[in-house]
Structure formats: structure tokens, C-alpha cells
Design a protein that fits this description.
It is a single chain. With 507 residues, this protein is α/β, with parallel strands linked by helices. The chain folds into 3 domains: 3-193, Alpha-D-Glucose-1,6-Bisphosphate, Chain A, domain 3 (3-Layer(aba) Sandwich); 205-412, Alpha-D-Glucose-1,6-Bisphosphate, subunit A, domain 3 (Alpha-D-Glucose-1,6-Bisphosphate, Chain A, domain 3, 3-Layer(aba) Sandwich), CATH 3.40.120; 416-506, 2-Layer Sandwich (TATA-Binding Protein). 41% of the residues lie in helices and 21% in strands. Strands 2-6-5-3-4-8 form a 6-stranded mixed sheet, sandwiched between helices. A hairpin with an 8-residue loop joins strand 5 and strand 6 (136-142). The chain binds 6-O-phosphono-alpha-D-glucopyranose (G6P). InterPro entries: A-D-PHexomutase_a/b/a-I, A-D-PHexomutase_a/b/a-I/II/III, A-D-PHexomutase_a/b/a-II, A-D-PHexomutase_a/b/a-III, A-D-PHexomutase_C, A-D-PHexomutase_C_sf, A-D-PHexomutase_CS, Alpha-D-phosphohexomutase_SF.
């Protein structure tokens, strides 16, 4: 990168002796990276001392992999103290002699990722707990390619953390360099990460087509890091936009910033009241997409994934393989087969999609949770880009999203989906998983189980269009039960019977 990086690199050898260790107790629970990064409750486990520990371990990891000199981008979302945690990360990395590009303001996660890719940095750190409730914060690690660090990399980082903690015997990690001093030494450079990212989105989306359509839209960033950014882009694209939940509000108005039906009441209400053509929604850090149709019905990410795949192939004429994680809809399998595209299914976590994107030409990769990434950008989810493409679909087809889904289902068959999140005790969770492993039911809701797939949790499969999956979340203390079938009633029946199974296993 810039001079700052160069200087920081040159200073690196002298820096190890500068930071002065402070004394503090060892964290009660070991720091673990879950489905995507380390998440914890603010002030309980997510403390400045622990954030510094993770940053210090990251510095060692980057030295070991030879990427330290390339520098690290550090960004943050709109959560409580996120800017301060990001500054703590920057100061520790700077103390280790690593050049840091620190975001000047809160930014969406894909903007941070784009900074890593476009400036060819060694890694990225995003302070965010994504879609989790307001009491959480987190540390997402991005690899040099912009996407979530691969499983092997997070394992190495955890191992370094464990070793450093054992060796440190109660002392806190170095406090880091004072930021003013770090800036003076050229080890920390502050920059606008949003502007260059917005420019990249302009290159990827058909703004002319959007301008001609003059859509009426609601933009709902859920008080998250895409606030202002998505709405401004849509306005630039000629849409008449009403932004809701765009104020800075680290308590997220009492709803978790996860774009699923139970949190989308305000978007549904606004679409209905204004007669808008859709609401386009992003999660707390802008890497997930959600939407509400003109009818006020929530469009889940399964349908969004299918619409985007269809658009990229049929309208853009793009090709490449299709990757979905384990809870993804069968619509995607069907479309990949219909278009003759290679198809892969992975465990949950976009890092697994990234593994494919790094070794082959992936057209689109995505998840039930709303994290979807496309080719010609970066191997990373991008909620803003997906929303702009949804607008592009409406503009191209001259239809609402709901009408486009209906047209698609008329071609490939009906697909309905629902997810329930259950708060079980750790023992309850273990008993449920043991039952599914050792003695899964032969039937559920009247359908015979054809296969049990243990790729991530346990998926009971009933033919080509019905399944139910039981799986422990890696980011929240819940067990998720996902089901897909041919009608909402069938999904309801599967979930009811699935929940009875959970009850009997955990009683
Ligand atoms: O179901 P969970 O383990 O909580 O994971 C849900 C999601 O969490 C994070 O957002 C990850 O980045 C995603 O890849 C994953 O799909």
C-alpha cells in the first residue's frame, strides 16, 4: 500500500521491544472463532484486553505466514464502542510493526473486504457482531482475498492465542502504540473505505437500466453499517427512496439486525403504507441481504439466492460453478442442473464457499442466512450489491420480486422454507444430536426418511424437495431447525414434528 505501510514495514524489526505489557487476568473462557470470527458479549468476554490479545495473536500469525508487511485494513460497524475496539486493534498491530489502514468511519463489512482486495493487503479485521443482538460485538477476520479467513487459518490463530495465553501466565498483551504516535510513525493511516467500495458497486450494477425504471423503494439498513450508503446508491440509480432505521442506534431499536421476518416489521409496514415496489434490507454490517415484496411479504434469502442465480445466467449470460451451504434451498440445485453448471454443497459458513472461490470460477455462492457473493467482485458476501441486483432484476423484468419468484416457481416447482431457533441447554443440545446420530426417526410428518446427511448437524431428507435440518449455531447459543417443502403447510407439519422430536430428546 502507501507510504504508511512501507514505513511501518521498515520499522517492524525495531518495534517488538516497544510495547509495555500490562497486568490483567487471563480470560475466563478461551477465545474461540465460531462460524465467522469471534463473537462475545460486550464487557463480559468482549473487552479491550481480550480484543488486544486477539490482535496480538493475529500479528504473530501474519508474521509467521509472511503477510505482515502487506498491512491490515481495520474497519468497524455501528455497534457500541466498535470504533474504540477498532482503534485498539490498530494500535496493537502498529506496535507489532504491521502497517494499518484504519477506516475513518463506520463501514459495511464488504467495504472493508474490498479495501483488502483492492489494495492487496495481507488481511482485514472488522469489528462487528454482524446480525447478533446489541449486547454482542465481534472480531471478523478477512483473508488476503477479502473473504472470511479459511478454517485452517482460524485454527492456527486459535492455537497461537492458546499458546500466548499459556506463556503469558496472567499478564495482559501489550497495550499497543498510542495512535497519535502510530500515525506519526506512519504505521497507521486513516482512510475512507466506503468511497472506493461504492465506486466498485457502480462498476458492477447496470445503473442506466435502473435509472430508466424509476423504482419506488424502501431502504432498510436496520441501523447497521449500510445506513446512508445503500439509500444514496439507490437514489443515484434514479429510485425514489425512503430510508428507515437509518439513524445511529447501537441498541438497534430492540430488534436484532438480522434480516429475517420477525425483525422486518418496520420494513413491511413502510412498504404497505407507501405502496413501494420493495424494501431492500441489509443486516448489521451490510454483508447479508433481505427484502420485502410489494405485497408486504418477506422474501427470504433462499428466494433471493435463486433469483440472483437466474438473473446472472439468463440476463447477464455469466457462467461458473454454484456453491451453497448446507441449509440452502433446493431451488439452487435445480437451477444449477438446468443451466448445466457445476454445483457444490458445503457446511454452513461462507468460509467454505470461499474455499471453492479460491480454486475455481464460482459464479455465485450463498447461504440461507442471506450471505451471498458473486463473481467479478470478490469471494465475499455483499448485502448492498445483492440489493442493487434485486433492483436490477425488477428493472429488467418489469416485475416485482414476488411476481418474479412466482414465475420461477412455475418453472421449477414450488419451494417453501422456514427456520426456527431454539434455546436449548448444552445438555439438551447434546442429547438431541446424539439421538439424531444414533437413532434418527424413520418418518416425520408422515414422510419416510430416505437419507440422513451429517455434513453439518443432521439433515433428514424426504425425496427431492423436502428436508429438515437440525444444527447447533456457531454464532449464537441456539439450535437451528430448518425445513423446506412444497407448501407452507408441509413446512409447518415438518417443523411441528421436528419440534416434537426435540422435545422428546431433551425432556
Ligand atoms: O448458523 P450460524 O452458525 O449461527 O451461522 C450463521 C452465519 O453466521 C455468520 O454470518 C457466517 O458468516 C455465515 O457464514 C453463517 O451462515
Amino acid at each position: 500500500m502507501s507510504d504508511a505501510q512501507q514505513k511501518g514495514h521498515a520499522d517492524r524489526n525495531h518495534s517488538q521491544s516497544q510495547p509495555q505489557p500490562q497486568t490483567a487476568s487471563v480470560p475466563a473462557t478461551p477465545i474461540r472463532f465460531g462460524t465467522d470470527g469471534w463473537r462475545a458479549v460486550i464487557a463480559e468476554e468482549f473487552t479491550f484486553a481480550n480484543v488486544r490479545r486477539v490482535a496480538w495473536a493475529l500479528a504473530e500469525h501474519l508474521e509467521a505466514t509472511g503477510r505482515a508487511g502487506q498491512g491490515v485494513a481495520v474497519g468497524y460497524d455501528c455497534r457500541f464502542l466498535s470504533d474504540r475496539f477498532a482503534a485498539a486493534v490498530a494500535s496493537v498491530l502498529a506496535a507489532a510493526g504491521i502497517p494499518v489502514l484504519l477506516s475513518r468511519s463506520a463501514c459495511p463489512t464488504p467495504a472493508l473486504s474490498w479495501a483488502v482486495v483492492s489494495r492487496k493487503l495481507g488481511a482485514g479485521v472488522m469489528i462487528t457482531a454482524s446480525h447478533n443482538p446489541p449486547e454482542y460485538n465481534g472480531f471478523k477476520l478477512k483473508g488476503w482475498f477479502g473473504g472470511p479467513a479459511l478454517p485452517e487459518e482460524t485454527r492456527q490463530l486459535e492455537a497461537i492465542l492458546a499458546r500466548q495465553e499459556a506463556g503469558r501466565a496472567g499478564a495482559a498483551p501489550p497495550a499497543g502504540l498510542d495512535l497519535t504516535e502510530a500515525r506519526r510513525l506512519g504505521r497507521v493511516e486513516e482512510a475512507d473505505l466506503v468511497g472506493p467500495y461504492v465506486q466498485q458497486l457502480r462498476n458492477l450494477v447496470d445503473f442506466e437500466r435502473l435509472r430508466a425504471a424509476r423504482l419506488r423503494l424502501v431502504a432498510d439498513p436496520m441501523h447497521g453499517a449500510a445506513r446512508g450508503v445503500l439509500a444514496d446508491l439507490l437514489r443515484e440509480a434514479g429510485a425514489e427512496v425512503t430510508e428507515i432505521r437509518g439513524e445511529f442506534n447501537p441498541s438497534f431499536g430492540g430488534l436484532a439486525p438480522e434480516p429475517i421476518a420477525r425483525n422486518l416489521g418496520p420494513a413491511v409496514e413502510t412498504v404497505r403504507r407507501l405502496g413501494a415496489q420493495a424494501a431492500l434490507v441489509t443486516d448489521g454490517d451490510g454483508d447479508r441481504v433481505g427484502a420485502v415484496d410489494a405485497t408486504g411479504e418477506v422474501l427470504d434469502a433462499q428466494r433471493i439466492f435463486a433469483l440472483l442465480l437466474q438473473h446472472l445466467v439468463e440476463v447477464r449470460g455469466w457462467r461458473g460453478s454454484v456453491v451453497k451451504t448446507f441449509a440452502g434451498t433446493r431451488m439452487v440445485d435445480k437451477l444449477a442442473a438446468r443451466y448445466g453448471l457445476p454445483f457444490h454443497e458445503t457446511p454452513i459458513g461462507f468460509k467454505h464457499v470461499c474455499e471453492y472461490a479460491l480454486k475455481e470460477d464460482v459464479l455465485i455462492g450463498g447461504e440461507e442466512s442471506g450471505g451471498i457473493g458473486i463473481k467479478n467482485h470478490m469471494p465475499e458476501r455483499d448485502g448492498l450489491l445483492c440489493n442493487l441486483l434485486l433492483a436490477e432484476i425488477m428493472a429488467t423484468r418489469g416485475r416485482t420480486l414476488g411476481e418474479q419468484v412466482a414465475a420461477l416457481m412455475a418453472e421449477i416447482g414450488p419451494h417453501y422454507f422456514q427456520r426456527r431457533d431454539l434455546h436449548l441447554t448444552p445438555e439438551g443440545k447434546n442429547r438431541l444430536m446424539a439421538l439424531l446420530r444414533d437413532d434418527p426417526p424413520a418418518r416425520l410428518a408422515g414422510w419416510p426418511v430416505e437419507k440422513v446427511d451429517p455434513l453439518d448437524g443432521y439433515k433428514l431428507i424426504f425425496g427431492p424437495s423436502r428436508w429438515i435440518l437440525f444444527r447447533a449455531s456457531g454464532t449464537e447459543p441456539v439450535v437451528r431447525v430448518y425445513a423446506e417443502a412444497e407448501s407452507p403447510e408441509e413446512v409447518g407439519a415438518l417443523l411441528d414434528d421436528g419440534l416434537r422430536l426435540v422435545e422428546s430428546a431433551t425432556r
